[in-house]
Amino acid sequence: MPTFSFPSYSSTLFPLAFCFLALSAKPISAFSFQDFRKTSFDSEIALYGDARISNDGSSVTLTPPLASSFGLLAYNRGFRLLEATSFSTDFSFSISPDNGDGLALVVLPNDFALKLDSSAFGLSRKIRFLGVEFDTSMDENVGDPNGNHVGIDVGSLVSASVRNLSSANLLLNSGVKLRSWIDYNANSKRLEVWLGKLGSSRPNDPILSYPIDLSKMWKGEEVFVGISASSGNSSQTSSVYSWSFRLRSVPNWLHSQPVDPRRERGEPLRMQKSSACPLTVLAGVIFSTGCLALMAFVLLFVWTIFVARHTTVAAAATEEEYPKFPVDFRYQKIDVVDTKDVK
To answer: By the 8 A CB rule, do 146 and 166 touch?
Structure first.
């Protein structure tokens, strides 16, 4: 069953929570399916087209081994991609050794169910969508480089950005289970894609990166996320084994460094001196001053409790041991007789 988490802060811990706010994004909602065995997932997940639960719930088969098949696995609850809204998702999948359309992660408008058809990934021209395609066919009409590539589609199957996987030693339609990580950062306005074999850790560098402002694309409209596949003219099968998604809101003043586009073109990068944001510097100065003031107060308090008190007690003990009172001294006259001349 997907779990949703909403942050709650105690009023007594507000100062501490405020400090941590500057270091991390605030999660809004999330879901995670390590498999699809639970029957309660029906209230969270919808299956469209030829998509079916397979192997006693261990996977969802999006396309059976039939030509012109299409299947969509979609999350039932919508969300809004506002200016400060970012998301992260990862899923594991496999594609059989055929030259079908492959599989794609898609973000769709709220009326998408009325506009699905038998086109690639079920996406008709009437649907506005964002897609990250793992394409195993080469269609010259949409500019595919080969039958083994990843592309980012913005409202069209003609990819806005594409990466040939031949140089990455990855084959999409080998039947091997793969895992993809996809992040959208609302501050840098960048969509990034990672890909690796299931069981391996996420690579350091994304295989594909594309600058895009999703808040302008959707303009606050409710959208839905899903994983879609189509077989084209082949009998290709595509399956999903796990899927997680996290939506988060990041304060606008927390900027992350965007990927340098020269890296994507293979140009050498030159190190540049970084300039600190004035607001960040001011916040650091205020925070440091506050810490020093707090430390000074604590030291003064400890000194008052222990050192001053010890001095007072010691003085009192000295007075008790050596009491102060007046002392009378008496004087007596003494006669001295010289006996040298006495015979």
So the answer is: yes
Residues 99 and 104: their CA atoms lie apart, in Å, by: 15
The one-letter amino acid at 119: S
Report which secondary-structure segment, H or E, holds 19.
Answer: helix 14-21
Mean pLDDT of 246-262: 62
pLDDT of 290: 78
The sign one gets for the Cα dihedral 170, 175, 176, 178 is: positive
Dihedral of alpha carbons 166, 231, 198, 161, sign: positive
What separation in angstroms does the CA of 336 have from each of 216, 313, 333, 339? 120, 52, 10, 10
Query: Looking at residue 26, what is its pLDDT?
Result: 46
Identity of the highest mean pLDDT range in 19-28, 33-42, 308-317: 33-42
Q: For strand 161-164 and strand 178-185, is the pairing parallel, antiparallel, or unpaired?
A: unpaired
- Cα distance between residue 204 and residue 249, in whole Å: 24
Complete DSSP assignment for 43-57: GTEEEEET-EEEGGG
For the cut 50, the answer to whether the pLDDT of residue 266 exceeds it is no
Three-state SS sequence of 124-171: CCCCCCEEEEEECCCCHHHCCCCCCEEEEEECCCCCCEEEEHHHHCCC
Q: C-alpha distances in angstroms, 190 versus 24, 152, 161, 176, 213?
A: 18, 12, 12, 29, 7
Contact (Cβ atoms closer than 8 angstroms) between residue 250 and residue 187 = yes
40: tokens are 């309660």
Contact 84, 248 (CB under 8 A): no
Answer whether residue 225 shows pLDDT above 50: yes
Residues 81-133 have pLDDT tens digits of 999 999 999 999 999 999 999 999 999 999 898 888 878 999 888 889 999 99
- CB-based contact 103:152 (threshold 8 Å): no
CA distance 316 to 321: 9
